[in-house]
Amino acid sequence: MPKFAANLTMMYQEHAFLDRFAAAARDGFRAVEFLFPYDHPAERIKAALTDHGLTLALCNAPPGDWQAGERGLAALPGREHEFQQSIAKALAYVTVLGNQRLHVMAGLAPSQDPLAHSTYRQNLTYAAREAARVGVTVVIEPINTRDMPGYFLNRQADAHAVCEEIGVPNLMVQMDLYHCQIVEGDLAIKLKAYARSVGHIQVAGVPDRHEPDDGDLNYAYLFQLIDELGYSGWIGCEYRPRGQTSAGLAWARPYLRGPC
C-alpha cells in the first residue's frame, strides 16, 4: 500500500509551521516533508518530529536567494563555492533531522548551455559524494516551465540521463507526477520505464495543484501501479489544498493510520 508524507510547506497553512507537525499526525500521516527548514533550528524541528511520531521523508538544500527569485544553484556557473556551502548547511540539518533524501535544485539556467550542463554534473557529483558520508541520497527533480519558467531541468529522460552519467548509487530522480504530466504526460509508461531509479515521488492534482482527487489524473490507478512496480518509498503530497487541509483528505483515508 502506498505511504504518504504531508508536505508541510503547502499543506496545513492554516497553522504556524511548527504546529503543522501535530496537525499532520492527528490526520494520520506517519511522515512529512517540506522545502526549506532553515528558518528554524534543526533541534526544534527534530523535537516536533519526535513528539508526534513522524519521519522526515525529504527536504531541500538551500536554493540561493529564494525571495529574489533564485530556484537553486547546482547549474549556475560561478556559484560553485556557494553551492558547496549550501550542501554543508543542508547536511548539518539532515544529520539532526534524520531524512535520507535531500532534493538539490538545479536553478534557472538555459537548458542547452554546455557550461550549465558541466557545472550541474560537477556540483551533483560533489553533493552526492558529501551526502554519501552520512548515508543520504541526493534527488533531482524535473520541474514544469509553467510553474517555474526558465528552470534548468524539465524532462524525466534528461534527469535520468544525468544520474546514469554520474553513476553513483545515491543520486536518483525525484518524480513529481504533477510536473511530469504537465510537461510530458504518459505517466504510467514513465513510471514503468524509470521506477528503479526513482528515489522519491510526489503528487498533486492537475492542472490546479489541489488534492489528488481533483483534476485530470486517475491517481487510484497510478497508486496501484506504483505499488506493483515495487516502489517502497514515501509519496509526498505536494499540493495546495482547496480549503482547510484536513477537510480535503477524503482521498487519503484508505491510506492513513488514523481518522481524517
Describe this structure in words.
With 260 residues, this protein is of the alpha/beta class. It has a single domain (3-252), classed as Divalent-metal-dependent TIM barrel enzymes (TIM Barrel, Alpha-Beta Barrel), CATH 3.20.20. Helices cover 35% and strands 14% of the residues. It has helices at 20-26, 42-51, 80-97, 114-132, 156-166, 177-183, 187-194, 219-228; strands at residues 3-7, 31-33, 55-60, 101-103, 137-140, 171-176, 198-203, 234-237. An eight-stranded parallel β-barrel has the order 1-2-3-4-5-6-7-8, surrounded by five helices. Helix 5 links the parallel strand 5 (137-140) and strand 6. Helix 2 runs parallel beside helix 3 and helix 3 (80-97) runs parallel beside helix 4 (114-132). The model has no long low-confidence stretch (mean pLDDT 97).
List keywords for this structure.
eight-stranded parallel β-barrel, alpha/beta, 14% strand, 35% helix, 260 residues
Q: Roughly how many Å is the radius of gyration?
A: 17 Å
Globally, the shape reads globular
Largest β sheet strand count, sense and barrel closure: 8 strands, parallel, barrel
Name of the CATH homologous superfamily: Divalent-metal-dependent TIM barrel enzymes
- CATH architecture level-2 label: Alpha-Beta Barrel
- Regarding quaternary structure, what we see is single chain
Distance between the termini: 18 Å
Task: Sketch the topology as an H/E string, one letter per element.
Answer: EHEHEHEHEHEHHEHE
